[in-house]
Each structure stands twice: as structure tokens, then as C-alpha cells.
């Protein structure tokens, strides 16, 4: 959970920095979409890793 919160904060920080450096106002919906995509990808990878880890533990337990 804390990783997701940190990830969201990082995207907001990144948008703020980009706004300052490029002198453009950030688009809130673009930031939200980037957060949703990025967090969705992160959670998908975590689920995949957990499934692999569980499969490995089951295989080791069967031996």
C-alpha cells in the first residue's frame, strides 16, 4: 500500500516539476491517467511475481 501511495506522489511531483521547467500548467486528467496506468502495471507485476513465488513454494513442498 505504501508503495502505491509513494508512486502516486512521485507522478504528482513529476508533473509539478515538468510544469515548472516547461512553464506549462499540468493537466490533472493526464496525471490521473498516468497514475492509473502505472499503478495498474505495478500491481499486475506484483500479482505475477506472487503467483510464481507460490507455484515455486508448492513445487518445493511437493518434493
Structural notes for this entry:
The chain has 63 residues and is mainly alpha-helical. The chain has one domain. The protein contains two helices and no strands. The two termini are 34 Å apart. The mean pLDDT is 88.
What portion of residues is helical?
Answer: over 70%
Query: Beta fraction of the residues?
Result: under 5%
Q: Give the N-to-C terminal Cα separation.
A: 34 Å
State the major sheet.
Answer: none
Give the structural class: mainly alpha
Order of helices and strands: HH
Beta strands, count: 0
Please report the number of helical segments: 2
Fold topology:
Layout: H1 2-22, H2 28-62
Helix pairs in contact: 1-2
Question: What structural keywords apply?
Answer:
single chain; 63 residues; mainly alpha; 2 helices; rod-shaped
How do you describe this structure in short?
This protein has 63 residues and is an all-alpha fold.
Amino acid at each position: 500500500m505504501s508503495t502505491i501511495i509513494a508512486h502516486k506522489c512521485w507522478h504528482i511531483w513529476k508533473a509539478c516539476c515538468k510544469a515548472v521547467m516547461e512553464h506549462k500548467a499540468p493537466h490533472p486528467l493526464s496525471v490521473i491517467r498516468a497514475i492509473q496506468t502505472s499503478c495498474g502495471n505495478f500491481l499486475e507485476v506484483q500479482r505475477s511475481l506472487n503467483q510464481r513465488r507460490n507455484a515455486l513454494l508448492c513445487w518445493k513442498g511437493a518434493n
